[in-house]
Amino acid sequence: KMAADTSVEILQKVLENEILQTTKVVEERLDAEMQKLDQMDEDELECLKQRRLEALKKAQQQKQEWLSKGHGEYREIPSERDFFQEVKESKNVVCHFYRDTTFRCQIVDKHLTVLAKKHIETKFLKLNAEKSPFLCERLRIKVIPTLALVKDGKTQDYVVGFTDLGNTDDFTTETLEWRLGCAGVINYSGNLMDPPFQSQKKFGTSFTKLDKKTIRGKKYDSDSDDD
């Protein structure tokens, strides 16, 4: 018991010491920054201010450019031809291939509507799979819903069904955001190593159903065939 108490005390002291060291380093850095600012003359400060303003102006221009290209909202595009035009003019594109009769597509719609507003740097589109047979063939889209994740005009990755999203219809918007972040198709601010999966109790039936369908992989396979 004594030995255990002693080792706990030692560990506590080590931790306290580390925290003190870290605080000291941070304080020293802040002091150095403050000193640097104090020593700056008027011209240097003015220069710093100008650079900051330029960066803000540039960010604002970039935002306007994205909005003019249809970023910031989740839109349906009418045809395959539009798809090629849209991906050509934007660096990052998420395109949802959907079908009216597939219930799970409505779940995806709900989440993408939220993410389109949040991630203006990325274009969010939807395209009816039945009206785009050539594209579905070319991109080998067999399961609906599928998200094609396009970077620099090339399809880099796919989110097929809900397999990557915790295998449940109740996945959160944050889970889909994390998955898009893994593909580098949005600017993700969270930790990619820490997926925000909700408690995974709901596996049960939706898990086996989705899995079976995904494996079967028939053309335009969907999770509503048996409904």
TrEMBL record:
This is Thioredoxin domain-containing protein 9. Forms ternary complexes with the chaperonin TCP1 complex, spanning the cylindrical chaperonin cavity and contacting at least 2 subunits. It is found in: Cytoplasm, Cytoskeleton, Microtubule organizing center, Centrosome; Midbody; Nucleus. Residues 53-181 form the Thioredoxin domain. GO terms for cellular component: centrosome; cytoplasm; midbody; nucleus. Keywords: Cytoplasm, Cytoskeleton, Nucleus, Phosphoprotein. The keyword Cell membrane does not apply. InterPro entries: Thioredoxin-like_sf, Thioredoxin_domain. It holds the Pfam family Thioredoxin. Significantly diminishes the chaperonin TCP1 complex ATPase activity, thus negatively impacts protein folding, including that of actin or tubulin. It comes from the Eukaryota.
